């Protein structure tokens, strides 16, 4: 082994790229994307809400009319991904019978998976651009994605 | 030529670990650092024996030349 560097990704992308990472990431935790009509029925009173701002993120301006919001749901727990006023990514978690702490934990877990998908996509795109061939790729027991590249 | 490998692990929180294997000298850092620039902020780094190996070889070579 020669060197080991640990990197905390900063999400900088336009909304379509963020949306793709959200869709892929939340799916690994059993959440699925819902449309606006379903959103109305999913919304109800007496729900607990918790907002999480993702500090290490910047959503770049993209084409007008892309509707920079995405709603995902699982077992009555709803997570809304949006672009806040500063241009950072924000998640609003909502759920009946859940504490703010529980919702925050779920939101952070979702954000982790979204970041994982974002980083995976960036890495794989970069490897392709450098003509670096992946010789092994897989999921570990701890749900990490592992990629191995040899003699490029 | 020694087998040169790059191992990238992305954990479920999105944290990325880039390991270079079999790359001697500062070039191993150049490869790993390029992924820091691509992704975000470096949190930690660890250099192991192979990083220093090539530098030591260069120093030995210079010492030999000076003797003659």
Care to describe what's here?
The complex is a heterodimer of chains A (152) and B (68). Chain A has helices at residues 15-27, 36-42, 100-129, and strands at 3-9, 11-14, 32-34, 48-54, 57-60, 69-74, 77-83, 89-95, 134-139, 145-150. With 152 residues, chain A is α+β, with helices and mostly antiparallel strands. Chain A has one domain (11-149). In chain A, helix 1 crosses helix 3 (100-129). The longest helix of chain B has 19 residues, at 49-67. The interface between A and B is large, with 37 and 42 residues.
Helices and strands, with pairings:
The complex is a heterodimer of chains A (152) and B (68).
Chain A lengths: L2 E7 L1 E4 H13 L4 E3 L1 H7 L5 E7 L2 E4 L8 E6 L2 E7 L5 E7 L4 H30 L4 E6 L5 E6 L2
Helix pairs in contact in A: 1-3
Chain B lengths: L4 E6 L5 E6 L5 H13 E8 L1 H19 L1
Antiparallel strand pairs in B: 1-2
> How would you spell out the order of helices and strands of chain B?
EEHEH
Low confidence ranges of chain B: none
Strand order of the largest sheet of chain A: 3-6-7-8-4
Query: Helix count of chain B?
Result: 2
Mean pLDDT value of chain A: 88
Order of helices and strands of chain A: EEHEHEEEEEHEE
User: What is the helical fraction of chain A, as a range of percent?
Assistant: 25-40%
**Radius of gyration of chain B over alpha carbons?**
16 Å
Structural class of chain B: alpha+beta
The overall strand count of chain A is: 10
Determine Rg of chain A (CA atoms, Å). 17 Å
